[in-house]
Each structure stands twice: as C-alpha cells, then as structure tokens.
Amino acid sequence: MQHFTIVTIAEKSADFRRVLWTGEHSQLVIMTIPPGGEIGDEVHEENDQILTFVAGTGEARVGGEVREVNQGDLVAVPAGTRHNFINTGVNPLVLYTVYGPPDHADGVVHHTKEEADRDEG
C-alpha cells in the first residue's frame, strides 16, 4: 500500500513537478508553480487529469473557460482539452494531480518548468 499525507508532501515540495506514484492506469504528481509562473498551455490527447489545489491562488484556463482557483478547489480536465494553470498570487500555487493513464516517467522530478520542457519537449 502507498500512503501519502498529500497536502503536507505537496506543500513541502519546491519542485515544479514530482511524480509520487505510478500505477498501471493512473499516476499521482505534485506540482509547485512559482508566482507569475504557469504549467503551460497543453493538451493531453490520451489522458484525463484531475487537479486539486492545496495552496495559493491561480487561474484555470480549460477548454476556453477561465476561472479563479484557490486552496481546496478541484478541476477536472478531460482528455483532448486544451488547458493551462497560471499562478496569479504572491505565493507558490501548490497542487496535486492525477493522470489517467500515466503521463510522465515513473519517479521523475523536474525542479523547474524549463527543466520539464527540456526533458519532455
């Protein structure tokens, strides 16, 4: 069994992306977006994604809609939907996300968005 105190783990991570767990059909990832930063405009053709925000404030842009996101919010992004999440606050925007099926290499850590873009570009 894998057990995570997910909010605590996510809030303690300064990494842009850290894969915590990968199963056959889904994957758990924590992310920290610095003030003024963003995940980046993207589409996952084969992956549904559920994002839960644990700290900070931001803007969700999903399928042409824009909404503010705060601690405790959850956003579901169906496969094939263009999306981006932007930190609009003065503190890090911290979240955990579940991909189904997995989207990243098991155990991968990207310290910055630039590192993630380089590795996955």
UniProtKB/TrEMBL annotation:
Highest taxon of the lineage: Bacteria
UniProt domain Cupin type-2: residue ranges: 30-99
UniProt name for this protein: Cupin
Biological source species: Nonomuraea glycinis
